[in-house]
Design a protein that fits this description.
Elements (H helix, E strand, L loop, with lengths): L3 H13 L4 H10 L3 H13 L5 H21 L1 E2 L5 E2 L4 E2 L5 E3 L4 E2 L4 E2 L4 E3 L11 E2 L4 E2 L4 E3 L3 E2 L4 E2 L4 E2 L8 E3 L4 E3 L18
Parallel strand pairs: 1-4, 2-5, 3-6, 4-7, 5-8, 6-9, 7-10, 8-11, 9-12, 10-13, 12-14
Antiparallel strand pairs: 14-15
Helix pairs in contact: 1-3, 3-4
């Protein structure tokens, strides 16, 4: 079972390359987006656990996330399944459906939408693999799968599966094999804790 500390330090390591309580405090106070990661991880950890303290914590966490949503323009619900090492590059315009799944070490840029489609050929929400880079303005909708180490280009509109290691770009997105997210996803989330 992954602990809250493990998740927070994995996210922190993606930003700074280090994971310590000193770095945690620094990023929490002056970092642009790390505060949202902290609220998201703490609120998600309190869900589904019995006891009045966890219910109160979940309630307060949801209020904190709502406040951050307004000030930062990030709307990632606490119930979203997100692996360790989430890196939110810049705040503003990020919307992720609560039923979506994001793997380990994903990068989200500003103005990204990961959403649901209720009709059409592919109703549902996206499943994003590990080490996926999603560029600014990208839109991913429907029951699609984005494979590990894939890259989604800026302003791409993705409505079909993207294989592992490929790059999707354009509107509608075209898939180009063999490029992937290797140069975009730096610092994996295996931090050395102190």
């Amino acid at each position: 079972m992954t602990t809250v500390k493990t998740m927070l330090f994995a996210d922190l390591h993606r930003i700074t390359g280090r994971a310590s309580w000193g770095q945690f405090l620094k990023q929490f106070v002056v970092g642009d987006t790390y505060r949202y990661n902290v609220a998201l991880r703490i609120t998600a950890a309190g869900s589904g656990r019995p006891g009045i303290a966890n219910r109160v914590g979940l309630f307060l966490g949801r209020i904190w996330l709502r406040r951050l949503r307004r000030t930062m323009g990030i709307n990632i619900p606490w119930a979203t399944t997100i692996g360790p090492g989430l890196l939110i590059g810049h705040a503003g315009g990020i919307v992720v459906n609560a039923a979506a799944t994001l793997g380990r070490d994903c990068n989200l840029s500003h103005n990204v939408t990961i959403g649901v489609t209720r009709g059409g050929r592919n109703p549902g929400v996206p499943t994003i693999g590990h080490r996926v880079y999603i560029g600014p303005g990208a839109v991913l909708v429907g029951a699609i799968t984005v494979g590990d180490d894939a890259a989604i280009g800026a302003n791409a509109v993705v409505t079909k599966d993207v294989p592992a290691g490929a790059t999707a770009r354009g509107n509608p997105a075209e898939v180009f094999p063999g490029r992937g997210s290797g140069s975009y996803v730096n610092r994996r989330s295996e931090p050395v804790t102190r």
